[in-house]
């Protein structure tokens, strides 16, 4: 039931807190769905200039990555994955890494109806949202998306049949009761190379192989997910709703 025929019929809305979270969590699934003729739309919550850990050309341990750089990388990934359209939810740079102080009502409204690629406008059959974590943006966006996908009176608002939370290589760094436990897997064995290529396109975020979020670390993590269900490579999701 959930093989190629199922995936080919999906109109998917992906909500990503930052440029690269979509790649960590579901780039292979996006690539597989697009290869089958399905639709995929991606909404990036925020992007802004940011100083973060990472060696620069001068050997400093902290580097500045501009919004323009991140957006250029993100656009390249969207082209690689052949998504149908993408958009940025919040243009205000002050919201970057501060979604926890943006009123939830505002976030919900944008995801639900006011954004250019909102649920009301796209009417997705499936929505992929970030799993909650210690990252304040992921946590805030997850809760806003759960609210935005709540059931309503039939005919008054679109009900998304499949609501799934996607993985991230950093989710091992959580309290035990908050650990990510996927219960739905997508075999991306034929698309693992696309996923890793997408990660490398986020060039400003690429780290040495020892780092869990490096392309090498991501490949190992994706192959480990695959071994959990006896395939070469897989992406794991937590099912929040499955209406059939």
From TrEMBL:
GO molecular function: hydrolase activity, acting on carbon-nitrogen (but not peptide) bonds, in linear amides
Keyword entries, A-Z: Zinc
Matches recorded under SUPFAM superfamilies: LmbE-like (SSF102588)
Domain of life (superkingdom): Bacteria
UniProt-listed GO biological process terms: glycoside metabolic process
Designated name of the protein: PIG-L family deacetylase
């Amino acid at each position: 039931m959930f093989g190629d025929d199922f995936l080919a019929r999906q109109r998917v809305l992906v909500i990503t807190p930052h440029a690269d979270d979509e790649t960590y969590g579901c780039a292979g699934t996006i690539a597989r769905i697009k290869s089958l003729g399905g639709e995929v739309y991606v909404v990036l919550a925020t992007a802004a200039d940011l100083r973060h850990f990472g060696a620069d050309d001068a050997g400093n341990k902290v580097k500045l990555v501009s919004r323009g750089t991140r957006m250029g990388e993100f656009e390249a990934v969207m082209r690689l994955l052949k998504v149908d359209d993408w958009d940025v939810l919040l243009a205000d740079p002050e919201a970057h890494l501060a979604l926890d102080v943006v009123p939830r009502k505002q976030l919900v409204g944008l995801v639900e109806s006011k954004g250019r690629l909102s649920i009301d406008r796209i009417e997705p059959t499936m929505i992929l949202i970030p799993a909650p974590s210690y990252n304040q943006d992921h946590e805030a966006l997850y809760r806003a998306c759960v609210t935005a996908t709540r059931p309503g009176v039939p005919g008054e608002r679109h009900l998304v049949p499949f609501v799934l939370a996607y993985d991230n290589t950093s989710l091992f760094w959580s309290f035990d009761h908050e650990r990510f436990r996927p219960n739905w897997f997508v075999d991306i064995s034929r698309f693992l190379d696309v996923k890793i290529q997408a990660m490398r396109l986020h060039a400003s975020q690429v780290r040495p192989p020892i780092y869990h979020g490096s392309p090498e670390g991501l490949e190992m993590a994706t192959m480990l997910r695959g071994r959990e269900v006896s395939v070469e490579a897989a992406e794991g999701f937590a099912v929040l709703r499955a209406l059939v």
